[in-house]
Amino acid sequence: MDVLAAFTGSTAAIGYGLAAIGPGIGVGLVFSAYIQSTARQPESARLTLPFVWIGFAVIEALALLGIAFGFIWQGQGL
User: Fold this and answer.
1) Among 51, 47, 16, which residue's Cα sits nearest to residue 31?
2) From the CB of residue 23, how many other CB atoms can be counted at a distance below 10 Å?
3) Which of 32, 46, 66, 72 pairs with 15 at a CA distance of 20 to 30 A?
4) Would you state the torsion angle of the CA atoms of residues 63, 69, 71, 73, taken in this order, to the nearest 10 degrees?
């Protein structure tokens, strides 16, 4: 019980650190799939590039939402 009582500080930073793992993996998967598809069929590189940037933007938006909710919930003392 004393260990839990001595735990102070912000858990929002820890939560966002854990939440940033998912978008990091997602960005890696998006770009690795693009590189692999371009290596297999180089003439489709210009056709698939916009989809790469859309996927990247969606993944990063989710990461930014994670940090925003971390700051919002930081002051609520849940």
Assistant:
1) 51
2) 19
3) 32
4) -150
* pLDDT at residue 43, rounded to an integer: 95
Q: Dig out the tokens for 13 from the structure.
A: 């930073």
CA-based nearest residue to 20, from 72, 71, 60:
60
Tokens representing 58 are 């969606």
H-assigned helices in the chain: 2-6, 12-19, 21-40, 45-74
Distance CA 40, CA 43 (A): 9
pLDDT 10s digits, 9-53? 566 667 777 778 888 999 999 999 999 999 999 999 999 999 999
50: number of CA atoms within 13 Å, CB side?
Answer: 1
Task: Give yes or no for a contact between 72 and 12, defined as CB atoms under 8 angstroms apart.
Answer: no
